[in-house]
Amino acid sequence: DTAVSQTPKYLVTQMGNDKSIKCEQNLGHDTMYWYKQDSKKFLKIMFSYNNKELIINETVPNRFSPKSPDKAHLNLHINSLELGDSAVYFCASSQDWGQEETQYFGPGTRLLVL
Amino acid sequence: QQQVKQSPQSLIVQKGGISIINCAYENTAFDYFPWYQQFPGKGPALLIAIRPDVSEKKEGRFTISFNKSAKQFSLHIMDSQPGDSATYFCAASPPFGFHEKLTFGTGTRLTIIP
Fold first, then answer.
1. Measured between alpha carbons, how far is B20 from B23 in angstroms, rounded to an integer?
2. Helix (H, G, I), strand (E, B) or coil at A46
3. Mean pLDDT, residues B97-105
4. Which one of A48, A54, A90, B105 is separated from A23 by 20 to 30 angstroms, measured CA to CA?
5. Chain B positions in Cβ-Cβ contact with residue A4 (cut-off 8 Å)
């Protein structure tokens, strides 16, 4: 009964390819997030959706496109992958959109671009 | 720009000792400060959080100390145990309505040795 799940866990691909990462939460939460954690462990928010509506869109290349088909899912599609995209991508969710909402993180997807 | 600065980058503490991790922030609009704990291969998980209307918050062996005038806050882990070995992230968020995304510090890798 995983709360926030991501697939795949590992992703190794060539530069220039297009790939997707899927995220699902079974907590009944209204808000979902994508974070990028680089090799130095720096964790930075990329996107946030509340009730399927985009509410945070950080300065992320437009090669990254999130899609939320429903409140329980937030997928991340990446076009034309670059070496610098190599990182761990975390999906998270919270009950609602708000400052004190606890964010529950998934296990991460380790992306390596060769 | 690094809005939340965290130190040290890594920390080794003997079992039973006190682990102290420090964070400093620049944005005076921040008014919510959580700490997240991340074990290897896992996503971060909320550990403890504080608002600036109190100078200290304690939960079990974990204590946050907050100094509003200095714009600093710290995590103290009393009686540190090997199971506490993890990466710790401080974070900060502005009030509701001000794009209250979490801004994370750069993380501290804590190792507790027997």
1. 10
2. strand
3. 75
4. B105
5. 43
From chain A, the residues in CB contact with B102 under 8 A are 45, 103
Among the partner residues B41, B46, B89, nearest to A102 by beta-carbon distance? B46
- Answer whether B108's CB lies under 8 Å from B8's CB: yes
- Could you write out the three-class secondary structure of B38-81? ECCCCCCEEEEEECCCCCEEEECCEEEEEECCCCEEEEEECCCC
pLDDT score at B97? 60
The model's confidence at residue B101, banded by pLDDT at 50, 70 and 90, is confident
Regions of chain A with pLDDT less than 70:
1-2, 99
- Residue B26, sorted as left (phi over 0), alpha (psi -120 to 50) or beta, turns out to be alpha
Distances (CA, A) of A1 to A26, A89, A104, B47, B86: 8, 21, 14, 21, 24
Which residues on chain A are in Cβ contact (under 8 Å) with B11? none
